[in-house]
Design brief:
By secondary structure, this protein is mostly helical. Helices cover 80% and strands 0% of the residues. The chain contains 21 helices and no strands.
């Protein structure tokens, strides 16, 4: 299976998984709001999840990104040693941030019962989560796509079905249920990774032994070919679960890889800044309590609903694109010094990704202005059709477009830039972080919660600009212009303009008295817009159909064999 096909399969599975997770999250949010109120939801989804993302983002993300780069050439003994450094780092951060969340952060409101237990549970769960980081990286690097989706979905279901009964019986102890469910979830998630790979390695070793009995000389090639059929690109280097622990694999080189260590440090410094840019509004809400816990809960519900496209589609595309570009494009070589065929394919992929995500973002922006009220009414009834929730949702539609473009351009930049370039961007991100926090505070004071979203839009626009500069500079000496995919084509642009006029008129005339008619008009107009996009992008549509047919044929060949 080629890297491109594997990345497409990974994106498909991740999209399905993200849809499943969001459905579970939305249902859980409604359940929490109706049983314990918006205030507890605000504490869980803003303050406690900010603690979790803070610890994991800073201690996991730089190591994972660096070690996923060009996995085919890894000395896995060095990678394992490097990844286990996350445990002491995460332990230190868990203690530090746990103390801050318990004793430094202030609020004028009374915190719910078991808040201290929930904070401690989140801190401990982060350390447990990183105890299986090596196995998580292996499942990504060797393309265990189906396993990743199954285990992630199963763990989410396990946590939900543990949390819900506890809240039903003890609604006043919701944070106790949250902490217990969080700990149980990470123990299940990490433990299942080791159990699965113990079984997989045992099966693989048995097959190798069986083949050696007949023909030792053919063993290696047959095993490699079988590994490819199972979705693994390169020869699996682990002979036992013990090899996932430091110092177990044979290693004739130094304990740590210098290039990976430098790259990890670069991602770590960048990660601090990216964390501020990503979690800025939660940081402002938590450090400067400008809105109440109940308002935070309402904001979080609307925020999650408004970022459906980003979570369902854009994030899986970014993750798969990052993996693909890291394997195909070399960081330390110019474009002209690399394989022409691979570079041409990578440019085509980047162009198509830009076109797809920009088109989705524009559709969300146009239809979101007149159908935000309808979506909020379907989700939460008339309670969520007030002026503030609708304004938040409409502003999110602009943020979705910018998030879409930034996700792909920044994904390519992070996947192909060398350590020096990444370090340079860190200085730029320092200024972006400062401007973002100031803009968040000023715009929120002026516009209310909507100011958070507009500040994020300014942040995304700035990041897009810097990524575009890097991409254009990287391809300046070639004939490739991958960012042309950001510009929508004529028929699609024309249909979007007409859609904006028609849907706005429908909203003015028929909402809220005739919601069904308003929805039917939007569905019809959306179909026209989709057809115009397919007409403008006939080659891309045909490419997608061909890839789908190839996958079906490959699966048919595997079944016949």
């Amino acid at each position: 299976m080629s890297l491109l096909n594997s990345s497409l399969e990974n994106a498909s599975f991740n999209i399905i998984f993200q849809i499943f997770c969001r459905l579970m999250t939305f249902g859980l949010n409604v359940f929490v709001v109706r049983n314990v109120g918006e205030a507890v939801l605000g504490v869980m989804n803003v303050r406690l999840l900010l603690l979790e993302s803070t610890i994991l983002f800073l201690s996991r993300e730089p190591f994972f990104k660096a070690c996923l780069t060009n996995a085919a050439e890894h000395n896995w003994a060095q990678v394992v040693n490097l990844l286990w450094l996350t445990i002491p780092i995460c332990s230190l951060m868990s203690f530090l941030f746990g103390y801050i969340w318990l004793h430094v952060l202030t609020t004028s409101e009374i915190l719910p019962d078991y808040y201290t237990f929930a904070v401690i549970s989140v801190a401990i769960s982060c350390v447990i989560h990183l105890s299986s980081l090596v196995v998580q990286l292996v499942s990504s690097a060797f393309l265990f796509n189906r396993f990743k989706v199954v285990i992630d979905a199963t763990a989410i279901v396990f946590r939900t079905f543990l949390f819900v009964p506890m809240v039903l019986h003890w609604p006043e102890n919701a944070l106790l249920a949250f902490g217990v469910a969080q700990l149980a979830y990470v123990i299940f998630y990490s433990g299942t990774h080791y159990v699965y790979f113990h079984w997989y390695i045992h099966q693989l070793n048995e097959k190798r032994k069986s083949k050696r009995k007949y023909d030792d000389s053919s063993d290696s090639e047959e095993v490699k070919e079988k590994d490819k059929d199972d979705g693994i690109i390169h020869h699996f280097p682990f002979q036992s679960v013990r090899d996932f622990f430091p110092g177990q694999l044979k290693n004739d080189e130094s304990r740590f890889n210098e290039k990976l260590t430098v790259l990890t440090w670069s991602f770590f410094r960048q990660g601090i800044l990216k964390y501020v840019l990503t979690e800025g509004e939660r940081i402002i809400m938590t450090v400067f309590p400008v809105i109440t816990f109940a308002e935070q809960g309402t904001y979080d519900v609307v925020n999650n609903l408004g970022s459906l496209a980003a979570r369902f589609i854009f994030r899986p595309i970014e993750d798969s694109g990052y993996f693909y570009f890291t394997q195909v494009v070399k960081r330390d070589k110019t474009i002209n010094d690399q394989d022409t065929g691979k570079i041409r394919e990578s440019v085509d992929v980047l162009t198509h990704l830009c076109s797809i995500v920009t088109s989705i973002g524009l559709i969300v922006l146009v239809f979101g202005q007149t159908y935000s009220s309808t979506l909020l009414w379907l989700y939460g009834g008339t309670k969520f059709t007030a002026h503030l929730p609708v304004s938040l949702m409409q502003a999110h539609c602009l943020a979705v477009l910018l998030l879409a473009v930034n996700g792909v351009t920044e994904c390519y930049t992070n996947a192909t830039a060398d350590s020096g370039t990444i370090n340079k961007t860190n200085f730029i991100m320092i200024y972006e972080s400062i401007v973002f926090l100031l803009a968040s505070y000023v715009l929120t004071s002026w516009l209310g919660p909507v100011g958070f979203i507009f500040a994020n839009c300014l942040n995304m626009a700035s990041r897009i600009y810097h990524s575009a500069v890097f991409i254009n500079k990287r391809h300046a000496e070639t004939s490739y212009r991958p960012l042309r995919g950001v510009v929508p084509k004529f028929c699609f642009s024309l249909s979007l303009g007409a859609a904006a006029v028609v849907t706005h008129s429908s909203y003015t005339l028929f909402f809220p008295d005739r919601k069904l008619l308003h929805f039917a008009i939007g569905t019809f107009i959306f179909a026209i817009v989709a057809l115009s996009w397919m007409y403008d992008n006939r080659e891309l549509v045909q490419l997608g159909i061909n890839k789908w047919k190839e996958r079906r044929q490959q699966r048919g060949d595997v079944k016949r064999d």
